[in-house]
């Protein structure tokens, strides 16, 4: 019969397993480890208690991360036994320095045993210790390299040195461990950007697809270069003058891609999705709007960055000018286009759609008819809800029945909507 409990552990002599016990107690509810006592509680004693005491104290200091010594007290009893009293730590998870933040390095107390923690337990401990801001939490992967990030910083004339890591948010202030922001910009970043090119408007017939990984800086450059390959140039003639125009404003593609990379929710696995067809490009990123924001707020330039340190880093590199200006700039680039970009959001996703300007001009839409704020509001409502009725138009725009009828007739003539049904059953869908 063992006399060990959830908070009591006996060791006959010193072994490195003692570090696992200390880690488990510090990660759970604390406890006491006696070295020199067998499982039955019998004092066996240590041959050289002073030497063993030194080995134990040095090992716990050097082999456990973060520093746990402030939660550990040592004493020698009867010149035979070393008592190690461990309090619950405040900077969990504690782990074996040689193993890292993974189950083989992180232990918790379960009954009378110290067992490897699950990945979910590790993530939960990090969240409780570091707060709920993902980019500021300790990364579970600490073996990181930054070749792409260093090249990007050099390209834009900003110093990237280890002494700058803490100020950039790449390492934590207390222990110097890499944060999730470091993981995002590292060459080991697990998130990717997927681009699919379709041969039909409903995005069902694949023509080509690419997946770009690595550092977000690598993804930014590779994805943008590929999108520019998809950005065809159409030529028209005005008299003898040849006029060339790209399908999409280059700056609009850049801003939409930057918005997806900087503001996505990296706490979720999965990829940024970009769909391309002859009519439009769709940029879909994980993570809906932060609480309190609406799509109207985003359009006029109000921004609350989810990844503040990442956004600040891109701002420092002059990749973005300031918070909220990117979406506003996209709308400015499309101000003379009869079909405007649209924004759709769900709880867990954000999508911005850029119309193909050349395709819009070819469609039966008069380029001389500007999209008014009222028309844009109706189009946004249809984009978010799938359809709209005459009664909803009146309520949405606070206009009378006759004006609503004329507006929807105008939008039908512009090729923006199509009417389905008649009378009370009539509704309008995007064309």
The helix-and-strand class reads alpha+beta
Shape: elongated
Mean pLDDT over all positions: 88
Q: How many angstroms separate the termini?
A: 78 Å
> Order of strands in the sheet with the most strands?
10-9-13-14-16-15
Radius of gyration of CA atoms, rounded to a whole number? 30 Å
Main β sheet profile: 6 strands, mixed
Strand content: 15-25%
Number of helices: 15
Number of strands: 18
The fold-level CATH name of the largest domain is Heat Shock Protein 90
Number of domains: 3
Just name the CATH architecture of the largest domain.
2-Layer Sandwich
State the name of the first-level CATH class of the largest domain: Alpha Beta
Helix proportion: 25-40%
How would you describe this structure to a colleague?
It is a single chain. The chain has 431 residues and is α+β, with helices and mostly antiparallel strands. The protein has helices at residues 17-27, 49-63, 119-130, 147-155, 165-168, 180-185, 216-230, 250-263, 295-299, 308-316, 325-333, 357-362, 373-385, 390-397, 401-413, and strands at 8-11, 31-35, 64-65, 72-77, 81-86, 95-96, 107-110, 113-116, 192-198, 206-212, 233-238, 241-246, 271-276, 280-286, 342-345, 349-355, 417-420, 427-430. It has a 6-stranded mixed sheet. A 4-stranded mixed sheet has the order 1-2-5-4. Strands 3-6 form a two-stranded antiparallel sheet. Helix 14 packs across helix 15. Residues 364-368 have low confidence and may be disordered.
Task: Give short descriptive properties of this protein.
431 residues, alpha+beta, Methyltransferase, Cobalt-precorrin-4 Transmethylase, Domain 2, Heat Shock Protein 90, Arc Repressor Mutant, subunit A, 3 domains, six-stranded mixed β-sheet, four-stranded mixed β-sheet, 35% helix, elongated
């Amino acid at each position: 019969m063992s006399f060990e409990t959830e908070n009591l552990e006996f060791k006959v002599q010193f072994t490195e397993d003692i570090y696992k016990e200390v880690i488990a107690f510090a990660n759970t509810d604390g406890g006491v480890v006696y070295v020199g006592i067998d499982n039955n509680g019998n004092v066996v004693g240590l041959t050289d208690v002073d030497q063993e005491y030194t080995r134990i104290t040095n090992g716990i200091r050097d082999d456990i991360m973060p520093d746990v010594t402030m939660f550990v007290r040592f004493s020698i009893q009867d010149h035979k036994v070393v008592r190690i009293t461990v309090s619950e730590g405040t900077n969990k998870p504690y782990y074996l320095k040689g193993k890292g933040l993974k189950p083989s390095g992180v232990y918790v107390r379960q009954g009378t045993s110290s067992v490897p923690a699950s990945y979910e337990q590790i993530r939960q401990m990090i969240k409780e210790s570091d707060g709920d801001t993902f980019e500021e939490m300790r990364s579970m992967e600490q073996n990181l390299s930054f070749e792409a990030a260093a090249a990007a910083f050099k390209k834009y004339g900003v110093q990237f040195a280890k002494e700058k890591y803490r100020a950039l948010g790449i390492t934590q202030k207390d222990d110097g461990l890499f944060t999730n922001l470091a993981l995002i910009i590292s060459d080991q970043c697990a998130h990717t950007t997927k681009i699919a090119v379709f041969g039909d408007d409903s995005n069902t017939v694949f023509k080509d697809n690419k997946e770009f990984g690595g550092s977000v800086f690598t993804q930014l450059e590779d994805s943008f270069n590929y999108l520019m390959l998809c950005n065809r140039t159409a030529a028209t003639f005005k008299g003898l003058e040849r006029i060339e125009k790209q399908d999409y404003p280059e700056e609009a593609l850049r801003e939409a891609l930057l918005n997806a990379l900087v503001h996505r929710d990296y706490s979720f696995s999965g990829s940024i999705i970009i769909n391309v067809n002859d009519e439009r490009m769709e940029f879909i990123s994980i993570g809906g709007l932060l609480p309190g924001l609406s799509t109207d707020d985003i359009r006029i330039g109000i921004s609350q960055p989810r990844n503040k340190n990442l956004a600040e880093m891109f701002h420092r590199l002059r990749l973005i000018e300031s918070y909220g200006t990117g979406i506003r700039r996209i709308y400015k680039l499309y101000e003379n286009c009869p079909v405007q970009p649209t924004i759709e959001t769900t709880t867990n996703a954000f999508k911005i759609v850029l119309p193909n300007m050349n395709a819009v001009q070819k469609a039966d839409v008069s380029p001389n008819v500007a999209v008014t704020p009222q028309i844009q509001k109706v189009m946004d409502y249809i984009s978010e809800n799938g359809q709209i009725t005459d009664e909803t138009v009146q309520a949405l725009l606070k206009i009378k029945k006759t004006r609503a009828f004329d507006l929807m007739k105008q939008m039908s003539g512009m090729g923006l909507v199509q009417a389905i049904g008649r009378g009370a059953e009539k509704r309008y869908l995007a064309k």
